[in-house]
Amino acid sequence: MADLERYYRVFKDSQHSSSFFVFISDDYILEFKQLSNGLYGFDVNSSSNLNRIHTSTSFHHLFFSTVKANKRFFSNAEVEGAEKARILQGRMGWPSDAEFKRILSGQGNSIINAPVTAEDVTRARAIYGGSAEQLIVGKTVRKRANKKNKILRTALPSELVRHHPTEILDIDFFYSDYAPYLIIRGRNILFIIGVTFNKRKISATGRITYYRPTDEIVKALNDAIALHNNRGFTVELVNGDNEFERIKGKVNATVETCAANEHNPFAEREIRFVKDRQRCYWDKLPYKQVPKIMVDENIIDVFYWINQHLREGSIAKDISPGAVIEGRGPHDAGNLEVTFGAYCLVYRESKNNRQPRSIRGIALRPSNSQGGYYFMSLNTGKRIHGHQWDELAITDEVIDRVHELAAKEKEGFLDEDGIPKLGLSPGHNMTIDDTDIDEEDSDDGSVYVYDDVTVSSTSSEEEPDGPDDSSYHASDVDDDESLSEDSEVDVSEEEERSEDTSDEHEGSRSEDVEPRSKDVEPRSEDVEPRSEEVEPRSEDDADVEDNSVESSDEDTGSEYEGEDSNETTDSNGAKERPQRSQRARRPPQDPLNNIGSTDGKSYMHTEEFNFSNLAENLNHTTTRQLYSRAVDYMFNQMTATEGIKIFQERAVAALIKEYKQLNDMCVLGVIDYDSLTAEQKAKALRAINLIKEKRDGKIKGRCCSDGSGQRKFVPREEASSSTMSVESLIALVTIFAFEKRDVAVFDVPGAYLHADLPDDKFALLKFEGQFVDIMVEVNPDFAESVRYEKGKKVLYCRILKALYGMIESALLWYNMFADVLMQEGFKINKIDKCVANKTVDGKQLTIGWYVDDNIVGGQTKAVTDLIDKINKRFPGLTIQRGKKLEFLGIDFYFRGDGKVDVGTVPYIKQMIKDLEEELGMVLNRKYTTPHAKWLFKVNKKSPKLNREKADIFLKYIMKVAWAMKRSRVDLEFTNTFLMTRVHEPNREDWHKFMRMMSWIKTTQDDLRTVGADDLLHMLTMTDSAHAVHNDMRGHTGQIITMGTGVLDQKASKQKMNTRSSTDCELVGTSEGLPKNIYFEMFMEEQGYKLESNVLAKDNESEIKILKNGRDSCTSNMKHVAIKQFWSTDRIKNGNIEVVYCPTDEMIADYNTKPLMGKGFTNFRRAIMGWDHISISYTGYTHPKERVGNNKRKATNDGSSNHAKIVEHQKKTYAEAVKAQNEECVEEMKQHVTAASSH
Q1: Same domain (yes/no): 941, 850
Q2: Which of 242, 280, 378, 1011 is the right S-S partner for 257, CB 3.0 to 4.6 Å?
Q3: pLDDT digits (tens, 9 = 90+) for 1161-1193
Q4: Could you give the number of structural domains in the chain?
Q5: Residues 194 and 262 in one domain
Q6: CA atoms of 169 and 321, how far apart (whole Å)
Q7: In this structure, are residues 833 and 847 in contact, taking their beta carbons and an 8 Å threshold?
Q8: Residue 523 domain-assigned (yes or no)
Q9: What is the mean pLDDT of residues 964-981?
Q10: How far apart are CA 216 and CA 447, in angstroms?
Q11: Where is the composition biased (Polar residues) (predicted)?
Q12: Which residue among 453, 480, 500 closes a domain?
């Protein structure tokens, strides 16, 4: 055992089992059972001992598990780790469990400082029953169904009919959870039929009357008789209680009844048998109150399986009663994959909207022998049909929702063992008289919850074979919302209709959907005897039953007032007993306060949980809400079906315009439908049609393809293309401004549609429903290819161009546009492949592009000629000319002094406006800095933010992050620290956030200025702060400038801990230097080879190490990894000159320390470009002076700086230090002299 525990987790709980369990992997456990000799063994020949953790065969108990029960098998620390793992997984965008574990193990180096481990993910799967619900709801895809086995039928032996041609039916009523059910039993064959009576009335006092109409009883019996007749048996007698006297002469057989107060012993015995089976289903279920649909479906399942097996005492010794009467064959046990009452996520057909791909439901019973199951939807309480699902552990929220659905139907509580009450109690009326159901009753305020009869023997019929998988296509979001013509209503269709309509389902029913009224309130538990002939219970018994009912604490409503004092009499003379109100408790005012988190925690469960929004709220993780809100704000588009409902003719006109563009640009071609194979049709891309209302009120239509199905067919290298980086864009506008080039911006409309699909690529686009008609109206040639599939009009078109939505479209467009530019004589920049240059009349012409957005700078004539040529090749360009241009959401103002102002003012103002509206407050506090001096301090005792505030915190931190890399570089330091706090923000972080946002509001009109003294000299200032973060890691700050403002800057938490400030400085340099090298290489590709690339540092010890490498390391620095001397190698082999900068002039300190006062103001003005760099850094020399100094140094010394470094390396350590100090002092004197003369 000790050796086993070294490698695997071993678990044993003698209270639940004598076995112990070994977790051999993330998904499987081995069960070692106790043997008679006291040892433990594992049966390798039995697969039953190898269980999947997330299936219903959990080791916690027999059939299923609950989260609460699963947590008992782990320590508090392990449970907390599992919960944190699910939280972190959500904040990282919900990678799969396997991928998340690889990330946590360090593969790819994508995250650091993770508070959880891969083992926490494994425990989370064990506790919650498998993958996180968000992964299943958001990522589930339809699986190719297994080929259905042929439905086997059983032939009826002729000898059986010849020797036993007649049958006797025994009938009686039994009650489960106070509702009546009719049982019909064949005395010889022992085939049983169950009938549910779902018609009931709830009076204003809360009294429930169940109806058992005579015509429905007669119909059920005649159907049962006909079922026997069809198999050759003649029903000659129907035997029941004397309450069936009224059906005599109405049934197609002789009816005999027992004397008063006597019962049919055969039926009574069968009822006891059924009830025993029913109790087994409910054992260990965690529910205390259930909707009637669960009881109904449970009883139907009990009857089905009783008939499916051989019955002792039946005349059929070798075949089951079901085989005798219905011809049933064997049921495929491999398809029995879920247990009654289990919690499942049922797959719904994928739509191109934000609806979840799975529906939460409770398993009911198999719908056929081929793998289909019925579930009760937790959203609507109705029955849904599913063929694909994932089973999870039952959470407290699921239990609460089941209770809530039952309370809405006024269903009583289960007994103390969690089993439906299998009998009657006073307080419920049962009538068999049809006169009770009249117009007067229907108008007295009562509500009929059910209005049909369900016969168990016909509810489990085999389904017809479904459509072939090769021709299957999930419905698109733009499909007509008409139901299919199949008898079954599938999950996605029914759920979407139930979400779009509230009460219109009331009183209606399809085979798969049990209607539920939303207006019905919980009924009391008292039920009257089932008929007048049954002897009623004594008043004493009734009192006992009545006193056991608990009244609601929130019993309100005028209709309940004064009804407890007097008994009333109904129209039939039956006494109404006083009823205690069991009105459903009010839902919480803010459902978010009571939502159980996805990690198993619960919040404020002081009231009954309202499940109505659970489907949305369980997906309400920080990252998903941020994405959803950002999309809503930036892309307020909707499906075309929704758009047509709202905008009507305007939406249709917009789609016609879009389709006409596709047709005019020859994007789609006609193809013969009959020539298509099933595989080609299965791979066809669905047409996604969208409608968007623009800010100017115009309606725009968009047609693209759903390329998600291409991922497994398109190679990775063909699925992405280059885009211009922000760094390259800032460098380009700096060049344009310095050289005072003419700059233009233009957009290529429908860019992708210009790129031809290669001849070896065959792709189809599939239109459905009303969009087929629109496409045919645009181009009548498509009319011949229109067909009907599953009753729906479809049109397949061949895709000839790079249609939006196809995975390879981006690369096809890039290759095409790059080829066009190279044909015009442009040369692609090797560092950024979305920048190209050409020399025209001795002057450079430069173009940069981001997909279909382009910025070009050069001489006016050259720019105009280029735009004209591109416009001829791609007609309809949207062109901007002038000094003020907007490109990729950034405003550029090209000034006459060789500088450019960069701004995102409208974006900043809208962000502040949105935040104030979301908070319901005005940011009116004034601050002089965006941060306080204690920015880096973290108070672990500060209360965590609630979910709503945490979401706001993350959302606006990410919005600021977009602006800080473009126009507001002064925000990067403060916002970067807050980005490290988005995982678990607390109240202190919220104060820091609000301070930053308030400061942004006061500076919302500020612009960033970028300029260059020349394009051949670049200064990089890098600094680091040692052990300033809560985990003792350092912080790196850096700026890169050419004189005015910064080309780029860095403010980031270091990725490793360091032992000293010098060590921290080395790490910072190694982290920041790649940007310096990037700009050097990019500028060289642009034709500007740097003559001077200076790196300014304020740590003299680091300068020595950077110049001399390990020769300048003492014993205290030997621990520095070799990789840190990458900077030394680059400095020696490159064009980088390291110089000393006084600490109080180190502008990069703005990005390492929460500066205040004058230091903050001066450095901010420097990085924002409002002051020249030399104002803050006196050591900065003008490029002309720098060139002169270099010439004098070359003349006087006769050697280069690199030669000096080599000379240092030949000296001893002491000599090298002394010489270096003397050199630094001399350089400082020269800087001071140059600055004073300047």
Answers
A1: no
A2: 242
A3: 999 999 999 999 999 998 887 666 555 454 433
A4: 6
A5: yes
A6: 14
A7: no
A8: no
A9: 93
A10: 20
A11: 591-600
A12: 500
